[in-house]
Give the backbone structure.
Amino acid sequence: MTVTSMTTGHVDRAAARSRMSANPWGLIRRGLVYVLLSIAAFVSIFPFFWMIVGATNTSADIIKGKATFGSALVANVSTFFAQVDVLRIFWNSGFIAVVATALTLIVSSLAGYGFEMFRSRVRERVFALLLLLLSIPFAAMMVPLFVMFSQAKMVNTFAAVILPTVASIFIIFYFRQATKAFPTELRDAARIDGLKEWQIFLYVYLPVMRSTYAAATIIVFMNNWNNYLWPLIVLQTAENKTITLILSGLTSAYTPDYGMILFGTVLATLPTLVIFFLLQRRFVEGMLGAVK
Amino acid sequence: MLYPIVWSLWMSFQVGKGMNLSFGGFANIVRLTKDPVFLRALGNTFTFFIFQVPIMIVLALLFAVALNDSTLRFRGFFRTAIFLPCVTSLIAYSTVFKSMFATDGIFNQALMAIHVIGGPIAWLGDPFWAKVSIILAITWRWTGYNMIFYLAALQNIDRSIYEAARIDGVPAWARFRYLTIPMLKPVILFTTVISTIGTLQLFDEVYNFTAGNGGPSDSTVTLSLYIYNLTFKFMPSFGYSATVSWVIVVLVGILSFLQFLIARDRRTS
């Protein structure tokens, strides 16, 4: 029985579907799966819809639960632009996120590549230590980091926001896992052809691992663009604040103007949405490589 | 990386205000056990952890298994839709949820329309419902993220194993329990540990939902929020806040260790 089942293992889609519909229980189960997924998709998407609709409504309508498009968009946009130096704030957020993402990808992918490609006696021990550090919450390092940066007179600079995020252990771990799937024959062939290590990394490893880089870019960019607690601590003057800090400030008002704020959240969500849809095709591929 | 960690460990034994610190031995640890806000924060953090992590992991697994079926229509749409909440910033989504949870807001109206509740719930004004709203919001934000890890792992499992089990008459739930779960165990462990760390460090959502005070009446204050308040809001006492941070480190350590133990037990039995 098991032998025949192994040989007939690969059933094509049409056959699987017809067998499903032949069995009433399979049909019901299938229906339940669609219902479950549709509810999940609706619940996932609804807040996005709510956010966009909210941007066109007055604050009073929003807290009364009005879920249809209103006519307050122009008013919301002008209040937002009047209260927030939009260009400046987006420049701050964008600069921090782009520089931090680039640096993180360079540092962490080099580290991940190094961990997997070079044999050394202490390699596993250093890596285990890194994983241990991953479990130390940011809250534990927040105070000493702040004292360190204030002694270095770097409080309220973008460098202070970016530097602690650059050596991301999570991303190093991710790159090391993904590098396990990188064919070592490619590296050996390149070595025989006389390429230097940095050339192998740049011309062989990088192009092969582009899905991994795409997935990492999404994760790192989102983390940095959305980073909140650390910028809240180190960025102290209004002209240096990022969009997340500004939105949070507007929300904590006693009677927040939701229409204007929801317009701001639409603006703040757009860049990560665009990056996600641009790189989405590679994203699942990249994740696949890392979990192998 | 190591330097601030060692420093904070040293600082957790210091007492005093501002930068005037002196060595206080175990004074901070004694203070912890008598600090009502700390105990509240510890309890709240545990409540969030105990309810939120299992709900999210189970939902994520369920969606991943459902989406892994190659005969399913609209897979791409469902996958993208469920992952989409992850692209929002913690602040943006907590603002959106805050406006949805308003007493006359859309959430109450929808629940009343389908007769789940009789009258409006003061989601953010009531100590119990404030916790529920935060758990709902976090689950919305992170389920898709965990689902992607499971989906990636599921696609590496050889389909012929499932075909074999199906033909041998193994029912669907047993295939899930005895094939899928064991094969996904490393990924489940990884996501559980990551989620545990995330929940124990919960800050952004609570800070934003409650305008920074962990209200109503400290019912949603978390350890991270308390550390922030100790350091940057109240009279700064770096030593004591470092002690509270190390409570999180120890908790993460203990919980991760327990999770590793549970995962290993299942393997041997």
Observations:
- Chain B touches chain A through 93 residues (CB under 8 Å).
- The longest strand of chain B covers residues 14-15.
